[in-house]
Q: What sequence folds into this?
């Protein structure tokens, strides 16, 4: 069940953690740099996700399809971030905008702990739900 508005605050720093296996989306291979800034795109309800330490953004490829792996770039893309009411509380899903039905998904349901993420059609497994934890020292 979708909730009307994510409770993210634009410009604040968050860790995005997989419900399936506690993988943190880091955009780097150094866990210490694993915090992302969620920012509202100008004049809209879309979001960008930027790594605090590197300035790289989480992006999807230009010609994306189901199974496309996500990447990092100095150029941003916009995401729809939707808060959902679930059994364990409010979790989030991160969608490609425009009604594509594709969202961030852990490869192989997170089995094996690779932490690789891809775009995949919604199938409501824990590999597609994310906890968003605000980092306390997040004043930018």
A:
């Amino acid at each position: 069940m979708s909730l009307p508005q994510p409770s993210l605050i634009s410009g604040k720093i968050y860790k995005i953690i997989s419900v399936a296996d506690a993988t943190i989306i880091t955009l780097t291979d150094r866990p210490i740099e694993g915090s992302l800034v969620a920012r509202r795109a100008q004049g809209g309800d879309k979001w960008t996700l930027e790594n605090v330490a590197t300035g790289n953004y989480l992006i999807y490829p230009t010609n994306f399809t189901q199974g496309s792996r996500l990447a990092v770039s100095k150029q941003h893309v916009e995401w729809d971030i939707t808060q959902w009411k679930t059994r364990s509380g409010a979790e989030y899903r991160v969608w490609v905008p425009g009604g594509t039905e594709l969202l961030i998904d852990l490869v192989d349901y997170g089995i094996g702990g690779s932490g690789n993420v891809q775009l995949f059609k919604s199938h409501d497994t824990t590999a597609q739900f994310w906890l968003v934890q605000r980092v306390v020292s997040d004043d930018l």
Q: What stands out?
A: The radius of gyration is 14 Å. The chain has a mean pLDDT of 80. The CA atoms of residues 14 and 134 lie 4 Å apart. Strands lie at 12-18, 36-40, 47-51, 57-59, 71-73, 80-86, 89-95, 102-106, 117-121, 130-134.
